[in-house]
């Protein structure tokens, strides 16, 4: 018997699979997570994997939460320890009272275990060796066998798993029966030899609703399809390659002319990121909607072009699926570390529009909206995903599209406008919003052509190096950036139930962990107003939110408090009033981390009333 | 003042092309390059070629990188949109523009620093993708705007104006273009309008990646004794393999050719090229032989000019990508957005 009493919880726990990458565990683990979702229980899986093809440790964490907390929580209630390399560390990471599931084929000394956890052994290798002769089958079916055993231990509805196997191997029907057999081998072993179920249990409920299970990269790519992107140029880089791959798949399905079978899109895998962004800028200059998908190192390589697009006022959409830096740093680990490098990308005076989706659904929405913003503002738009959003499945609101929605192609002068005698000045601000009209190449035989250049020009695009027109133009670009503040997605604010002097600002993939942490912080007796920032430049409500509180925590997944710097810099706020809460070890931020950092801070500040002597 | 507009008035009897445009309609602003610059001759040749081809001036997109050569698009086709982009990156910008609208004519103007040094990668990849364009390198072997440093096309052993001898091997962009799969490769000399104009016309008519390396002496920094890109040196070492006449599909062949010395090549759009063969052993349809011929003559210090290689059944990038016939930039919501019905199916598959 373990010294700590075993954790007993229904539909609320964290189970972590420790595997070796390349062992085929990913699809079995994902099936496990999907099965929980199909039981109506909200689930948040996260893949923690190395930059490697085969042989290094990988983890798959499944957050089960009927209450709907789908961010990383921190801590592991049950460890499925399939990797001998990390066995000791994995066991050490289990919560007191937690559970260890391991392959008991080879007896292990008691010193390998802990006395405050429940140890569950299944001789997986022995079972596989008995059942299968092909070494590859032994490996692959071992994964399904442990899913089978877990289904009994956690009281999972096995019919759901069987159905998922049927769906997964549809078209390869001969694989269905052997997989179901393997599933039942594991389940039967557990039922016969182990005490089932354990303290962690799954109980069918109806808390999933109409939500979908989707990766951010897939959703963002679909946003590009719906947003009308026709040109995609990209260079392979983790974790964004999946976005370009998904765009290709979506287009093959949704963008082929049914009659001619021809493509209403063009995708180029470029020779490098410089070429990717060059193609995007060329296509956008010529009136198509174009984008690239990349990560931090790619953004670094695109710097010169980004500056040109800013100054020459050419639309462009860049999806940046952020990862831990530097270039070859931790490409498979998540961070929000390119905020500053994107906001002020390139040489000279530049500022760029950034969008911060919190999940796949917003990645779809912002992904589509980015093309309208790029055309409207005639400038690069960065959609800032990260690896956690992009490469993990998230339970997200279903995707919606208003069929009456028309694309905003921005200020474009047509041949008819030119013939009607409208004054065309490429860099002329006609109505005070800082945004000039443009023409597409080939519009009119004698009117409306202009020369696009990085060198300085006047309002009519004529080359000049004179001081006044340069300053005039740079000031207009600032007016345009001001205009952007009211066009980009507004912050989402949630006030504490009672008046409070403290607030918290957060963004992107931090949202689900923050949503859970707020309950933990409230449980400590603190009240905190919340603001989820969804874009840069900041809406005026960001200034007022900070102004309305004594101080505001800014929660981020980077070392240098990059969004905080941006707020200080752009809103002119005293840095003392913004307390950085920073998580940057490459793993997704957890609710427990936020609770500890903010909660402890507020605990320390809590002033106890002095005793009045009578 | 660095921007000089040309006066608009002109002689009423200026000849007009089949569209009714005069030569003046294809001009741009006054050149601000050095007097006598080879690049200005190339500008004149481009104007002449577009006039003779009766191209609607606004149907051309002229795109360049950075450098003296890349400044020239302001000096021709004033009614065309132009894009003076980033150093060495004209090919990617042009590729994107071409993807957006396959109906325009794309003229890429670059220099030897722009294409052979900083932009060698983009030069190579745009050619191997078969982007439908006319890619002209105005090749003078030096950086003019930054005052005379060697570029990567400077020949080994050639002497700079300051007396420095170049010890690096030179890059032959025409030879590279052949290796990379360009379907039209030519070399000419800015001082030889008779050869250059028909080459530009044929390149524009060609469907696919057309590359023209034009040796263009720099009067300020590379026209002295010891330079291998000077007017005198190029004239003395020029080995023309052919001279050509471009005959548009609308014009009958009127010129009498002496059979045996002339080859008539039909292009994709129905236009024809009449080649007067100067080197009897030269076959412009044989890529491998062309590469050998270039190297053989380069070893002898000769600069081979003329139309070096041409594929008659070439394909372009749009053909490879199976894109629709209408320009991608002309597609609207109806063509591009699958709507809520498709999303419903998508959502249903993800539960």
Give your account of this protein's structure:
The complex is a heterodimer of chains A (614) and B (351). Chain A has 4 domains: 9-201, Pyruvate-ferredoxin oxidoreductase, PFOR, domain III (Pyruvate-ferredoxin Oxidoreductase, domain 3), CATH 3.40.920.10; 214-396, Thiamin diphosphate (ThDP)-binding fold, Pyr/PP domains (Rossmann fold), CATH 3.40.50; 411-488, no CATH class; 492-605, 3-Layer(aba) Sandwich (Rossmann fold), CATH 3.40.50. Helix content of chain A is 37%, strand content 19%. Chain B has one domain (23-334): Rossmann fold. Chain B is α/β, with parallel strands linked by helices. The longest helix of chain B has 16 residues, at 38-53. The interface between A and B is large, with 76 and 61 residues.
Annotate the secondary structure layout.
The complex is a heterodimer of chains A (614) and B (351).
Chain A: E1 9-10, E2 12-20, H1 25-38, E3 43-48, E4 57-65, E5 76-81, H2 87-92, E6 94-103, E7 118-122, H3 124-131, H4 135-153, H5 158-168, H6 176-193, E8 200-201, E9 212-215, H7 216-226, E10 231-234, H8 241-254, E11 266-269, H9 273-285, E12 290-294, H10 296-301, H11 303-312, E13 316-322, H12 339-343, E14 353-355, H13 360-377, E15 380-386, H14 387-391, E16 393-396, H15 415-419, E17 451-453, H16 467-485, E18 492-494, E19 502-506, H17 511-523, E20 529-532, E21 535-536, H18 540-547, E22 551-556, H19 562-571, E23 578-582, H20 591-605
Parallel strand pairs in A: 1-8, 2-5, 5-6, 6-7, 10-11, 10-12, 12-13, 13-15, 14-15, 19-20, 19-22, 22-23
Antiparallel strand pairs in A: 2-4, 3-4, 9-16, 14-21, 18-20
Helix pairs in contact in A: 1-4, 1-5, 3-4, 4-6, 5-6, 7-8, 7-13, 9-11, 17-20
Chain B: H1 38-53, E1 60-64, H2 68-71, E2 81-84, H3 90-100, E3 105-111, H4 112-117, H5 120-129, E4 133-139, E5 142-143, E6 149-150, H6 173-180, E7 184-189, H7 193-205, E8 209-215, H8 231-237, E9 238-240, E10 242-247, E11 262-266, E12 272-277, H9 287-299, E13 303-310, H10 317-321, H11 333-336, H12 339-348
Parallel strand pairs in B: 1-2, 1-3, 3-4, 4-8, 7-8, 9-13
Antiparallel strand pairs in B: 5-6, 7-13, 10-12, 11-12
Helix pairs in contact in B: 1-7, 3-5
């Amino acid at each position: 018997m373990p010294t700590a009493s075993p954790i007993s919880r229904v539909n609320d726990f964290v189970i972590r699979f420790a595997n070796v990458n390349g062992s085929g565990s990913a699809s079995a683990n994902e099936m496990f997570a999907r099965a929980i979702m199909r039981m109506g229980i909200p689930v948040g899986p996260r893949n923690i994997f190395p930059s490697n093809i085969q042989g290094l440790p990988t983890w798959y964490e499944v957050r089960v939460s009927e209450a709907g907390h789908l961010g990383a929580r921190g801590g592991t209630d049950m460890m499925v320890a399939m990797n001998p390399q990390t066995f000791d560390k994995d066991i050490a990471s289990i919560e007191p009272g937690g559970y260890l599931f391991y392959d008991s084929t080879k007896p292990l000394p008691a010193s390998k275990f802990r006395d405050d956890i429940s140890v569950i052994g299944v001789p997986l290798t022995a079972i596989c060796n008995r059942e299968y002769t092909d070494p590859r089958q032994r490996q692959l079916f071992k994964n399904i066998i442990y899913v089978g055993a877990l289904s009994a231990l956690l009281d999972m509805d096995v019919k759901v798993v069987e159905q998922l196997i049927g769906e997964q191997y549809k078209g390869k029907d001969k694989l269905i029966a052997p997989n179901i057999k393997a599933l039942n081998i594991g389940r039967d072993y557990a039922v016969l030899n182990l005490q089932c179920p354990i303290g962690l249990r799954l109980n069918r409920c109806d808390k999933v609703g109409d939500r979908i299970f989707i990766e951010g990269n897939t959703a963002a790519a679909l946003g590009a399809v719906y947003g009308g992107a026709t040109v995609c140029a990209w260079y392979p880089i983790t974790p964004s390659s999946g976005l370009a791959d998904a765009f290709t798949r979506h287009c093959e399905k949704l963008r082929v002319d049914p009659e001619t079978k021809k493509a209403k899109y063009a995708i180029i895998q470029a020779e490098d990121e410089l070429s990717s962004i060059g193609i995007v800028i060329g296509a956008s200059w010529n009136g198509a909607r174009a984008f690239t998908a990349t990560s931090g190192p790619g953004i670094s390589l695109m710097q010169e072009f980004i500056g040109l697009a800013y100054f020459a006022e050419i639309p462009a959409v860049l999806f940046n699926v952020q990862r831990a830096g530097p270039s070859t740093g931790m490409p498979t680990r998540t961070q929000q570390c390119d905020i500053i490098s994107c906001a002020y990308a390139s040489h000279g005076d530049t500022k760029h529009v950034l969008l911060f989706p919190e999940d796949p659904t917003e990645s779809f929405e912002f992904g589509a909206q980015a093309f309208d913003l790029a055309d409207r503002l005639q400038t690069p738009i960065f959609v800032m995903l990260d690896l956690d959003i992009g490469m993990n499945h998230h339970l997200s609101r279903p995707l919606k599209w208003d069929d009456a929605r028309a694309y905003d192609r921005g200020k474009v002068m047509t041949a008819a406008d030119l013939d009607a005698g409208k004054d065309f000045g490429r860099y002329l601000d006609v109505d005070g919003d800082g945004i000039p009209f443009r023409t597409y190449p080939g519009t009119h035989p004698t009117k409306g052509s202009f020369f696009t250049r990085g060198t300085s020009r006047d309002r009519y695009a004529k080359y000049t190096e004179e001081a006044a027109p340069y300053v005039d133009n740079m000031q207009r670009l600032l007016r345009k950036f001001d205009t952007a503040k009211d066009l980009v997605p507004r912050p989402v604010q949630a006030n504490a139930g009672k008046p409070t002097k403290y607030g918290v600002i957060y963004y992107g993939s931090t949202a689900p962990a923050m949503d859970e942490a707020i309950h933990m912080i409230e449980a400590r007796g603190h009240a905190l107003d919340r603001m989820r920032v969804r874009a840069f430049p900041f809406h005026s409500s960001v200034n007022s939110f900070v102004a309305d509180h004594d101080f505001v925590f800014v929660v981020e997944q980077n070392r240098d408090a990059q969004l905080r710097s941006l707020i200080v810099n752009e809103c002119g706020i005293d840095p003392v009033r913004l307390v950085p809460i920073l998580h940057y070890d490459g793993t997704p931020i957890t609710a427990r981390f936020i609770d500890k950092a903010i909660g402890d801070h507020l605990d320390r500040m809590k002033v106890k009333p002095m005793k009045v002597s009578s | 003042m660095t921007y000089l507009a040309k006066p608009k008035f002109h002689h009423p009897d200026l000849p007009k092309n089949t569209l009714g445009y005069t030569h003046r309609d294809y001009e741009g602003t006054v050149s601000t390059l050095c007097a006598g610059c080879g690049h200005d001759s190339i500008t004149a040749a481009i104007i002449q070629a577009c006039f003779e081809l009766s191209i609607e001036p606004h149907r051309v997109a002229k795109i360049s990188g950075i450098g003296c050569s890349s400044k020239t698009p302001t000096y021709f086709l004033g009614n065309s949109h132009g894009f003076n982009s980033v150093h060495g990156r004209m090919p990617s910008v042009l590729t994107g523009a071409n993807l957006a609208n396959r109906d325009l004519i794309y003229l890429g103007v670059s220099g030897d620093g722009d294409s052979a040094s900083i932009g060698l990668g983009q030069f190579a990849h745009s050619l191997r993708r078969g982007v439908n364009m006319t890619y002209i390198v105005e090749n003078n072997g030096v950086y003019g705007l930054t005052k005379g440093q060697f570029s990567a096309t400077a020949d080994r052993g050639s002497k700079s104006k300051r007396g420095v001898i170049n010890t690096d091997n030179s890059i032959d962009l025409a030879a590279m273009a052949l290796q990379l799969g360009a379907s039209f490769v030519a070399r000419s000399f800015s001082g030889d309008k008779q050869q250059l104009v028909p080459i530009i016309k044929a390149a524009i008519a060609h469907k696919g990646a057309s590359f023209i390396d034009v040796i263009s002496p720099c009067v300020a920094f590379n026209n002295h004794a010891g330079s291998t890109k000077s007017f005198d040196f190029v004239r003395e070492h020029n080995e023309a393999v052919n001279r050509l006449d471009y005959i548009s599909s609308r014009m009958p062949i009127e010129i009498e050719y002496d059979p045996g010395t002339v080859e008539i090549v039909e292009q994709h759009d129905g236009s024809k090229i009449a080649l007067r063969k100067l080197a009897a052993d030269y076959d412009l349809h044989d890529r491998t032989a062309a590469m050998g011929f270039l190297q053989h003559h380069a070893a002898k210090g000769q600069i081979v000019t003329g139309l070096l290689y041409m594929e008659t059944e070439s394909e372009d990038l749009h053909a490879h990508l199976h894109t629709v016939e209408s320009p991608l930039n002309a597609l609207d919501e109806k063509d591009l957005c699958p709507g809520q019905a498709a999303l419903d199916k998508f959502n249903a598959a993800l539960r």
